[in-house]
Automatic annotation (TrEMBL):
Family according to the record: Belongs to the MurCDEF family.
GO MF annotations, alphabetized: ATP binding; UDP-N-acetylmuramoylalanine-D-glutamate ligase activity
Top-rank taxon, per record: Bacteria
Pathway assigned in UniProt: Cell wall biogenesis; peptidoglycan biosynthesis
Protein name (Swiss-Prot/TrEMBL): UDP-N-acetylmuramoylalanine--D-glutamate ligase
Mur ligase C-terminal domain sequence ranges: 307-420
Organism the protein comes from: Flavobacterium cerinum
One GO CC term, this protein: cytoplasm
Keyword annotations from UniProtKB, A to Z: ATP-binding, Cell cycle, Cell division, Cell shape, Cell wall biogenesis/degradation, Cytoplasm, Ligase, Nucleotide-binding, Peptidoglycan synthesis
Length: 443
């Protein structure tokens, strides 16, 4: 059996290693450059590879192709594979064939990293040996090749879900759905929504779907598409049967026979969106039979995620916050919503089809100045030019932070929450967040 892996990043190299271990004839091809550390791993495992090209005769003879999430379906090599009827799957699909252990799959437009890490933290504190994979850390395939865990918590993007056929999580979580990555879905929202719901398509009556009952898109979809999994809703606004809700500033869960309660002010993470993330993680922990005391303790000592509303420094009584992970307007909505002081907002980058209207009321209420940080900022200027008095364009993180400092005064917050992808000026949102932190430390 010939396995061709497209993409020489974390998921690609992990898949190549697992394929090799399972007896496949493996070839890896990357249209860009492969990092040196991955080249070393490929050499150690005796896996042939190429970079900066896709050689068709070495690829179109595959029995199965694993494509990295970053490669769009419209790229020529994927079209050629589809024309030949060759199966193209994601790393999650490929790896799941080689394990019997339970997985918890977590998706959503926002909150999925925090929810995934928080869920993993709860299970670990409850003495379950679960791995953490998907969009985070060491790839799922690589970890299955090493075979050290009794289960996995997986953060799953819509791109990873596009490439599944039989993958079935025991517990699926959908944190929320808002327009994101529409450039990859022909700018059709319904295609993106359908991609997210692929997470539950193979689930059976013995599995669970945990979801935000306040999310209109999710509720509408569930009304018109029957699913087999048992539904576990969570809500900030209403009492839900067989789920988790908030009453009198307390999280209340009636998923199991014993009621679980936790005062919101004891959560280590701040903000309404984090109450939702905590409810989703609690639902999973209860379904996995973690003790109530352990859940409470874990929710109060969780440290949070780097680049997500991360407090960097206070300088001259101005708080600098790194929310570089906010790559769409919905994530930025949560960030602005949690600001309690006048805010200088650093925004911009590669727009993925953003509609800035949803931010308008928050920007009016909270933002005193905007610092644009992107190659093309016209859309932001057009959207907020009449709402915010001061809008400044900058071309580097250092410049953006210096100008933000000049525009802020005691008691303000400087918030990096770009609402855009980072690839015009940075390698990744992590690189953007790190540069922000360095620039703040150098003020």
């Amino acid at each position: 059996m010939r396995l061709v892996v497209l993409g020489g990043g974390e998921s690609g190299v992990g898949t190549a290693i697992l394929g090799k271990k399972k007896g496949y004839d493996v070839f890896l091809s990357d249209f860009g450059k492969i990092k040196n550390n991955y080249k070393e791993v490929l050499a150690l495992n005796d896996i042939t590879w190429e970079e900066e090209k896709h050689t068709e005769e070495l690829i179109l003879n595959a029995d199965v192709v694993m494509k990295s999430p970053g490669i769009p379906d419209k790229s020529p090599i994927i079209k050629a594979l589809h024309e030949k009827g060759i199966s193209v799957i994601s790393e999650i699909e490929f790896a799941s064939e080689f394990t019997e252990v339970e997985t918890i799959g977590i998706t959503g437009s926002n909150g999925k990293t925090t929810t995934t890490m928080l869920t993993h933290h709860l299970l670990k504190q409850g003495s379950l040996n679960f791995g953490l994979a998907g969009n985070i850390g060491k790839s799922f395939a690589w970890q299955i090749a090493e075979n050290k865990h009794e289960g996995y918590v997986l953060e799953l993007s819509s791109f990873q879900l596009d490439g599944i056929k039989s993958y079935r999580p025991h517990i699926a979580v959908i944190t929320n759905i808002s327009p994101d990555h529409l450039d990859r879905y022909e700018y059709k929202y319904e295609l993106y929504v359908a991609a997210k719901f692929r997470i539950t398509m193979n689930q059976t009556e013995s599995d669970f779907l945990v979801y935000d009952a306040d999310d209109e898109i999710i509720s509408k979809w569930l009304e018109s598409n029957p699913i087999k999994a048992q539904k576990i809703p969570f809500s900030l606004t209403k009492v839900v049967e067989g789920g988790i809700y908030v009453k009198n500033d307390t999280i209340i869960s009636n998923i199991t026979n014993e009621e679980f309660t936790m005062p919101i002010n004891e959560l280590s993470l701040e903000g309404k969106h984090n109450v939702k993330n905590a409810m989703a993680a609690t639902a999973v922990a209860q379904l996995m039979r973690i003790r109530k005391e352990t859940i409470r303790e874990s929710l109060s000592n969780f440290q949070g995620v780097e680049h997500r509303l991360e407090k960097v420094l206070k300088i001259q009584n101005v708080q600098y916050i790194n929310d570089s992970k906010a790559t769409n307007t919905n994530a930025t909505f949560f960030a602005l919503d949690s600001m309690n002081t006048p805010t200088v907002w650093i925004v911009g980058g590669v727009d993925k089809g953003n509609d800035y209207d949803e931010l308008m009321s928050l920007v009016r209420e909270k933002v005193k100045a905007i610092v644009c940080l992107g190659v093309d900022n016209q859309k932001i200027i057009n959207a907020f030019g009449n709402v915010v008095d001061v809008i400044v364009e900058t071309a580097s993180m250092q410049e953006a932070v210096k100008i933000a400092q000049k525009l802020s005064e005691k008691g303000d917050t400087v918030l990096l929450s770009p609402a855009c992808a980072s690839f015009d000026l940075f390698e990744s949102y992590e690189d953007r967040g790190k540069q922000f932190k360095i620039a703040v430390q150098n003020l």
